Automatic annotation (TrEMBL):
InterPro entries reported for this sequence: ASHA1/2-like_C (IPR013538), START-like_dom_sf (IPR023393)
Residue intervals of the Activator of Hsp90 ATPase homologue 1/2-like C-terminal domain: 22-159
Organism expressing this protein natively: Actinoplanes philippinensis
Name this polypeptide is given: Uncharacterized conserved protein YndB, AHSA1/START domain
Domain of life from the UniProt record: Bacteria
Amino acid sequence: MPVTDVQHDLDALTLTITADFAAPVERVWQVYADPRQLEKVWGPPTYPATVVDHDLTPGGRMTYYMTSPTGEKHAGYWVVGEVDEPRSFTFEDGFADADFNPLPGLPVSRCVYTFAEHDGGTRATYVSAYASAEALQQVLDMGVVEGASAAIGQIDVLLAG
């Protein structure tokens, strides 16, 4: 399992997940830059993702949905901020309706993903910041730590393939 640390801080309003991969930074970057690779790892194994739009450039959008084991579709979106290929990118991540419009009342996180060389491979640091402690608690209660850890765990298989 590549996830090596998970920290949530209700005072700082952040969730930080650290993962190590036995692959170069450029290869890990490609997992996020290529929509076909991303959809293999964005959702947990029981909620596979389908990427509809993917534009990993400043101001770009990524839209996707995850399909539950019973066939229900849960949509989401990214609005991309800064991109420093292959080292980092930022984005807003939110829940969406079937037309990929933001769902009011559900948390939006501001995410910073960074990739750095570490012990001959890559250390990925995933930081999500929320507007309030209640928003962070809401996603924690929804199982974001377990879901994200399972999703990130799929990256090793993709990198080995």
